[in-house]
Design goal:
α3 packs antiparallel against α4 and α10 runs antiparallel to α11. The N terminus is likely disordered. By secondary structure, the chain is α+β, with helices and mostly antiparallel strands. It is built from 16 helices and 25 strands. A five-stranded antiparallel β-sheet has the order 2-1-5-4-3, sandwiched between helices.
Length: 719
Amino acid sequence: MDSTPPSSSSSPFDLVSSALGRYIPRGQAAAPGPAGAPADPAGGPPEQDLPAAGPQEQILGAVNLDRELRVTHRNLEAPVFAGLDAATGSPFVDLLPQGDVPTVTRRLRQVLETGEAHVARVQRLRRADGSELVVSMSILPAAAPQEGLTVSLIAMARRLHLYAAETAIGTSLDIGETAQSLAESLLAWGDVAAIDLDFAVWTGEGVTERAQDRIRLRRAALVPDRAWPEGYVTLGDDLPGEASRLLAQAIRRADTPQSIVIPDRATIERVLGSPRLVRALVPSDRSAGVACVPLVLEGDPPVVLGVAEVWRRADRPFADSELLDLEELVARTSHHVDLARQHQREHTQVLALQRRLLPRSGGGTIQTASVYQPTTPDSAGVGGDWVNSFPLPDGRTALVVGDVVGHGLGAAATMGQLSMEARALLSAGLAPDEVLEHLDETVTLLDDAETGLAAGYSALGSTCCIAVYDPVSHRVALSSAGHLPPILVSPDGRAGPLALHPHPGLGAEFALREPFGVHTFVAPPGSLLALYTDGLVEDPAVPIDEGIGRLSDAVASVHPWDPLQQAARRVVSEVMPARQRDDVTLLLARMIGYRKEDTATWRLPARDDAAVRARALVSALLRQWRTRDGTRDSVLLLVSELVTNAVRHAGGPITVRLIRDGPGLLCEVGDTGNGRPRLGRAGLLDDGGRGLHVVHRLTTRWGVRWTETGKVVWAEVVR
């Protein structure tokens, strides 16, 4: 071996090219370069003068580039590099798969500018026939006075490729990306690679042993990206039922998942038995062989998640060692596919839960629109933000926005529990501050290790804001637990956050707990109320007050005639931070209220003649509204019973309110008492307790809500 030290003026290309000769077996003729140049463009020793290299296969190559990244010299004479079209003057990026061109170009120019080498990048190179070669690529700056780059290429051994492929496949929890990564790794063994997954895996459902005639495979990944023959099953398509059953039967010989190899097209056509199936499964008209490797989830019994298929020309049969490599790679990465399946199932569950929490229509007295945008599209980014709006049984409308700490299934489950609990308590007539007291206790209980929804998950510090809109008085009662202040836009265009007393949030330590206050304000028809979570306004680059101010300006720009859903999306796009760090949630509510001619309110002293006076007032109004005689009689009896009970059991001034709402009439009687009317069974000889039975039979629904001065009993009658 030549031990003479290289000249100090030798370029990296010269050094690499000189080293190539030491790995070329004796007697192997080197192919000339593209212009008829000798195999060693650096002028190194002739091949016949080199010492023997033994049975080793050459795996080292070199390409020299100018500052325009075009090939000036190359030494890719080893058989492993056959098919790489690196003609002098051609762009180096022509050797790359299309998707890798931007990244590799950026690396090449970075080495040109900085002079710092980029070493050992795992890279695929594209051969002229469309197949790919996996190499370890290093980018070296040229030695002065020469300019340009030297790119050294080391064809990766199979074992190293297995390691690199497994590392790349486990980087995503998206099932499509996981399948695509596996297919790209398998392409090192063939010309076409496809991943067909059981439909239950694709949708995230539980995978169990099922009858073979019920299996359904869907193509989850396919490489390379090119035009496929007509009728071929491409990405996202279901395989024909017969093909799914044949593949399932082929890989489950003797009830054990096994790999199979079909060596040529004639055998494939005989196995498939149908030209339609051949068109669907065989990727070209050329003779081809295929290796089918099952993706198996280990267990007792093992469960097949799908099939990996590697196609290659029939003149390149699969060696036993190659099939073992394929099986090893698929076996190592099957658990990544199952993790992606579980993630897909969790994502589907979370989205279904959040769809159930989307705001419902508030009826004709209020318009609502909401926007929810998670941090990331996968379920790990689906967090605990929620918005909800729903009509209450007594004609009011509740608006709720909350932000549960964390992301994922634990946060989503807590979000669902708090949201449903808030809705139930508000529908039962509790005031917003009372509802927050119950939610505060719930969050504290969920933090208990024995009763928590998810191990290691804590919802302490979650926030919530509840607003209840009365469409008759146009008043809003609002309570907040550590939430950012809502923004109110008055009909004259003035906008700003509401001045709320700060609160530490839900589940705070006992020493930090404070009573939840109620902020009451008037929202005339045409007012706009915006409730949101902190992800919409928090930006590390600006103070939080500035973010809230920007939101106020954006909400104030919403015109009364703007469609509210479009306006909500526009507000989010204008205000959302450039780099989203948290879930973004916005709820817009436009107040409409009842028309004056559809409501009436009377205040009566709690005297024995209160029921008589109430009947007279209500009767005159019902005639004005032209109510049917049967409905009028029912409403008069209802008012008489409710007012009589208020005088007998409560005292103080009595308020009677009647609301005409579409096909129904809503009757409300308020008093200063705090007792809850209960419907019970009255005995045959009992004088009392029959009034509520009358109310129950006359109405479609009735209930009680509490106020700061007492309670209101409401009942609805169909007109």
